[in-house]
Specification:
Structural class: alpha+beta
Organism: Stieleria magnilauensis
Radius of gyration: 25 Å
Strand content: 15-25%
Strand order of the largest sheet: 1-2-5-3-4
Protein name: UvrABC system protein C
Largest sheet: 5 strands, antiparallel
Order of helices and strands: EEHEEHHEHHEEEHHHHEEEHHEH
Number of helices: 12
Distance between the termini: 45 Å
Helix content: 40-55%
Number of strands: 12
Number of domains: 3
């Protein structure tokens, strides 16, 4: 198999929800050896932004990546220095490579994230040496919500943030969070009885573990709390996920200092390790909270191929995208969209209720790494002035 048609039935990435224009073509090459794949990449892959996918001998998509220069990135997989690393292991299992150009690095970043969520290629989430697996920190699971980890965004949850990296570190964090907020950490098979629930018989409810006695759980399994009392703790936990509550860090700091003062050095050491995990979580939650508060605007992104785009960023999430208007008629045609964007930004923001809530981390990281890009942002009611000013200087 040599160069494959972009319309080949086995290839393609599907619909791009962040592309306001016609679908971009997918190109693919295939071969039985790395040498032939390398040669075909050199012959046909361009030095432009885009996403790429690696397919194994069965035609399964095993890895998705992005780059601001597709040709340079794909050729790096064939480097001798890369043989024992992640790239070398991936290319050993690859028999075909497909790519889709994107007008900008930001567009490629969004597309990569969407594709990983859609296909969950195995080399993106497991089996890659030196790679920490991403997990989401979730709050939910009725009737007694708890903190838990999930490799994917679950269907039902109260609040969620992520992805975070390092499953072991995050497991320590979840254990500490459930204890600090006195939420249960038992399985869904546990029976829950709240204090206000009526019973025909006098029942002595026994807790399923020692945490009620240790005062690290409210005991919803043993009728030791009411629903409202438990809900109050869930609300406090939710505020932590919003980045507005540092209570767990303070509690662990006090525990560590108390244990150290009492020469309980083993206990102090465990508290220190857990505190490190929570500080990592809190730093990221604070970054995301800042993005939610500060990032609500239109972001104008130029495309190398003339496919310029306007992204609506609402509370840190990509909410919508439109092709940058060309000419006075183009601007008049897009005015209804701009008016709807203005209404969106003026509405009360509910966390995670946008069409693409998973883009929050991407947007926050992008502007943290590229603060100068904030100069390309503007409010919807500035669109006319911004557009005409740019058109006059083009």
């Amino acid at each position: 198999m040599d160069v494959l048609s972009p319309n080949h039935d086995e290839f393609g990435f599907g619909i791009d929800p962040f592309n306001p224009r016609v679908a971009r073509p997918v190109e693919a090459v295939g071969a039985t050896t790395k040498e032939k794949l390398n040669r075909q990449i050199r012959q046909s892959c361009p030095r432009v932004p885009g996403v790429y996918g690696m397919l194994d001998r069965s035609g399964d998509l095993i890895y998705v990546g992005k780059s601001k220069s597709l040709r340079n990135r794909l050729l790096s997989y064939f480097s001798a220095a890369n043989e024992e690393e992640k790239g070398g292991r991936i290319i050993e299992n690859t028999r075909a490579i497909q790519w889709e150009t994107q007008p900008s690095e930001f567009a490629a970043l969004l597309r990569e994230q969407q594709l990983i969520r859609q296909f969950t290629p195995r080399w993106n989430v497991q089996g890659v040496p030196k790679r920490q697996r991403p997990v989401y920190l979730c709050l939910g699971r009725a009737p007694a919500p708890q903190f838990f980890l999930s490799p994917k965004i679950p269907k039902d949850y109260i609040a969620l943030q992520g992805p975070f990296f390092g499953a072991k570190r995050m497991a320590n964090a979840v254990d500490a969070l459930n204890k600090v907020f006195r939420l249960r950490d038992c399985s869904q098979q546990q029976t829950f009885e709240f204090a206000e629930q009526l019973s025909l018989f006098q029942i002595d409810h026994r807790p399923g573990c020692l945490r009620l006695e240790l005062n690290t759980c409210l005991g919803p399994c043993a009728a030791a709390c009411t629903r409202s009392e438990y809900a109050s703790q869930v609300n406090a936990a939710e505020s932590f996920l919003d980045g507005f509550n540092d209570e767990p860090l303070i509690a662990l700091q006090d525990q560590m200092e108390s244990a150290s003062a009492n020469r309980q050095y083993e206990l102090a050491g465990r508290a220190y390790q857990t505190l490190k995990s929570l500080r990592y979580v809190h730093r990221k939650l604070t970054m995301l909270a800042n993005a939610r508060r500060k990032f609500s605007f239109v972001y104008a992104v130029p495309g190398y191929d003339g496919c310029h785009s306007w992204y609506l960023i609402h509370c840190g999430e990509v909410s919508a995208v439109a092709a940058t208007p060309i000419g006075r008629d183009g601007y008049q045609a897009i005015k209804p969209i701009i008016n709807s964007w203005k209404a969106t930004l003026e509405s009360a923001a509910d966390r995670g209720h946008g069409p693409f809530p998973y883009t929050l981390g991407t947007v926050a990281s992008w502007f943290k790494k590229n603060p100068a890009e904030l100069d390309r942002t503007f409010a919807p009611d500035q669109a006319g002035r911004k557009y005409y000013r740019k058109s006059m200087t083009a």
